[in-house]
Design goal:
By secondary structure, the protein is of the alpha+beta class. It contains 3 helices and 30 strands. Helix 1 packs antiparallel against helix 2.
């Protein structure tokens, strides 16, 4: 009887452990940094307002479209050009992709207008310069395209400088409304909801374009700091400008630097969460994304985000961030072949692999090489908080099973009251019969 009960207990324990193991494996898969192979060279990406699709320009291969419900490549749109930057209209009907010259031809930059419904190019607008970045006004009326243009500044020495150009396109007529000059070696553009556009320039200046297309340029950092990206908070109060290893926080009212966020690696892309509470900065030197708390302007945590991360965008529901990865490998002695990917990273710090980034200030301290041996299943899950939680859960389940077994065992071996009563009655009757005899 005892052996039979023990066997049942062992069977129950095995079943429960198997169930917990399935939960454990499922959770491991859930927190793994999921990757979507898109090909090409993905620098930028944008998400539709409903959060259903992410559009990724991938160079000469066109524009990749990711379905966020499955994190699968839905389709690739052929723009017949070298696609680089992208923005989605506020109403979610059209996507605007900035391209360099058509493949194998040299005729300047262009903007491809893509219908979200059909995922086909409906219009192409030719513009000046070489593509850099693109932004759209909150009402969807204008698209601002940032390009670079080489200007001869000294005829005798044949000296040239690269300046930024901002081309404004009317989204109703697709006409070029105006083209204004930005600063020296411009790199990125962002537009506030009030219509002001901000251009980060390589000489440490910030060019502000008002809604009448007037330009004012102000110095906010030392020369040749190497601005990489810029983003505006949803309340239009602050700008976050990424330098090489730090982020400047700029007051949008007077364009003055109010804070400097340090403790970062090789910054590339910047994105602000829809609620304005956090800023995500890709760190190409550490294969990571650093999350800045906007209340304190400090790095809250840093998480793994795939090899050589560049662009970053956050879903409207703020549950996931999508990060482009410039993953590549050497082909022969000199050629580098890219296999562009997009990493899907949870915004919950308990469901990601947190890292301790290299925060040195010396340029030589950073590993800026392209990752050439990337394993898409790399997670380092067992160093995360989730693993410890699951381990504790398994221990608690095992303890509860042992307690249940002990209680059941004692109950099953306790004499039943009915049997005791019947036994006493039988004994009494037997005694009476004996006495009568």
């Amino acid at each position: 009887m005892m052996m039979c009960g023990f066997k049942k207990f062992v069977s129950l324990l095995v079943c429960c452990l198997l169930f917990v193991s399935f939960l454990f494996v499922g959770l491991v898969q859930a927190v793994t940094v999921e990757t979507v192979t898109v090909g090409g060279t993905p620098y930028d990406l944008a998400v539709t307002p409903d959060g259903k699709y992410v559009y990724v320009p991938i160079g000469s291969d066109g524009v990749a479209v990711i379905d966020t419900s499955t994190n699968k490549l839905l389709t690739t749109i052929n723009t017949e050009k070298f696609s680089r930057s992208v923005v989605v209209a506020p109403d979610g009907e059209y996507v605007y992709v900035v391209n360099d010259f058509p493949v194998n031809m040299g005729s300047g930059a262009s903007v491809s207008v893509i219908s979200v419904v059909t995922n086909k190019v409906t219009k192409t607008v030719q513009i000046e310069g070489t593509s850099l970045d693109v932004a759209i006004t909150s009402n969807g009326k204008y698209v601002y395209v940032l390009t670079s243009n080489s200007v001869l500044v000294n005829v005798g020495l044949n000296e040239k400088k690269v300046f930024g150009l901002v081309t404004v396109i009317d989204t109703d007529t697709y006409d070029v409304v105006t083209t204004v000059s930005a600063g020296f070696s411009s790199c990125a553009i962002a537009i506030a909801s009030n219509g002001c556009a901000y251009v980060a320039n390589g000489d440490g200046t910030l060019s502000v374009i008002d809604d009448s297309f007037n330009v004012e340029t102000k110095k906010i950092a030392d020369e040749n700091v190497g601005f990489h990206d810029i983003a505006v908070t949803p309340d239009d109060k602050y700008l976050y400008v990424a330098l090489f290893d730090e982020v400047l926080v700029v007051n949008a009212d007077n364009n003055s630097v109010v804070a400097v966020v340090t403790g970062l690696g090789a910054c590339n892309g910047v994105a602000v969460t829809p609620d304005g509470k956090h800023v995500y900065v890709t760190d190409g030197g550490n294969n990571a994304v650093s999350v800045i708390n906007t209340a304190t302007n400090t790095v809250e945590y840093t998480m793994y985000a795939g090899p050589s991360p560049y662009g970053v965008v956050i879903l409207p529901n703020e549950k996931f961030a999508y990060v482009t990865n410039l993953d590549g490998k050497m082909v022969g002695d000199y050629d580098l072949e890219f296999t562009g990917r997009v990493s899907v990273v949870s915004t919950d710090p308990n469901l990601v692999t947190t890292l301790s980034p290299n925060n040195g200030s010396n340029f030589d301290d950073y590993d800026l090489s392209i990752n050439t041996d990337f394993d898409t299943d790399e997670t380092n899950f067992f160093s995360s908080a989730v693993f410890l939680q699951m381990l504790l859960f398994i221990v608690v389940v095992c303890v509860l099973l042992v307690v249940i077994f002990v209680v059941v065992k004692r109950v099953r071996h306790r004499p039943k009251m009915d049997n005791l009563v019947n036994s006493n009655i039988s004994d009494g009757v037997s005694r009476i019969l004996v006495m009568q005899v």
